[in-house]
Amino acid sequence: MSEISLTPNPVSDPLALFSSITLLRLTSSDNEECSITLSRGQSFPAKRFSADEEGRAPVGEQQWDAISPPADGLHADLQITDQLGEGRMGQVFAARLVSLKKSIHGETLPAAYIPLPSPFCIKLAKPEYIRSLAREAWFYEQLSKEDGNPGAVTPVCFGFFARQLPNNVHLRSWSSVKIKPEKPSDVPEGEEPNHDLLVDDEEGEYRHFDDERRSHLDSPWHLQQWKARTDRSPFVGILITERLGAQMPTEYSPPRGMGLRRRLPEEVR
Questions:
Q1: Cα separation of 65 and 101, whole Å?
Q2: N or C: less crowded end of the chain, CB within 10 Å?
Q3: What is the CATH number of the domain that holds 150?
Q4: Would 258 be classed as within a structural domain?
């Protein structure tokens, strides 16, 4: 076994740190707890719009594409400890680091090998909103390109991880979802609604500037590719960040129409 230095290594780029994650205490198979391993996934970049009627490029170079998942990053085993909340598109959990490895089947690294947050914050997409979480991950990637944003303007983000759910594995937390999407009134009877439509799925009134980059068009989360997939097994998608601050003492219910209705606990009304 090669010698491992105990000197902490600073995290220069958290988005390039992990290639895979194993989550403990999130899934079950045959009514028994089991683990699930997710690989680093591709985020979903937005379209580039231009209001210029000539279709000219935006001024200046813009790194618009999704960040390529790291091929040789570390592997982390994380254990879910508490559910922190639930929103329209996902559930949020706290998780602690159980072990850190050089790769999925690689040697275990000492806890002091690299400074990591404790606990982590994990946002788990509901099955209807996996594309929205992939888009949210892209925003974190874009914001991380500006010095001083991660850890100040936004939590430090460790990336988006995804995989399809095996047939014999069940996500227990999906059974406890309280905020469920409402079926739109214009969906024909017997047809499944698509709750995960994004603002740039349609062309809209603005022109899409074609800069010959295909990160959006070739993405597996692109609406046409998503509709055309043959394997309809649900996707598990998570976004991992550091956890900041205490849990908010508020609960949000799904909106009817525009906006959110806020409900406060009895003790703070």
A1: 29
A2: N
A3: 3.30.200.20
A4: no
CA 96, CA 80: separation in Å to the nearest integer? 7
Q: For the chain, what is the radius of gyration of the CA atoms? A: 20
Residues with Cβ within 8 Å of 63's Cβ and at least 6 positions away in sequence, in order, are: 142, 145
Q: How far is CA 196 from CA 127, 222, 223, 228, in A?
A: 10, 11, 9, 15
Sign of CA dihedral 262, 265, 268, 269: positive
Instruction: For residue 153, give the amino acid letter.
Output: V
Kindly state the helix (H) or strand (E) to which residue 161 belongs, with its residue range. Answer: strand 157-164
Structural domains counted in the chain: 1
259: which DSSP letter?
S
pLDDT (tens place) for every residue of the chain, 269 residues total: 444 444 445 567 899 999 999 999 887 767 778 889 999 999 999 887 655 566 565 555 567 789 999 989 999 999 999 999 999 999 999 999 999 999 999 999 987 788 888 899 999 999 899 999 999 999 999 999 888 888 888 899 999 999 998 888 888 888 889 988 877 766 667 666 778 888 888 765 555 555 556 788 889 999 988 888 888 888 999 999 999 877 655 555 545 443 333 333 443 33
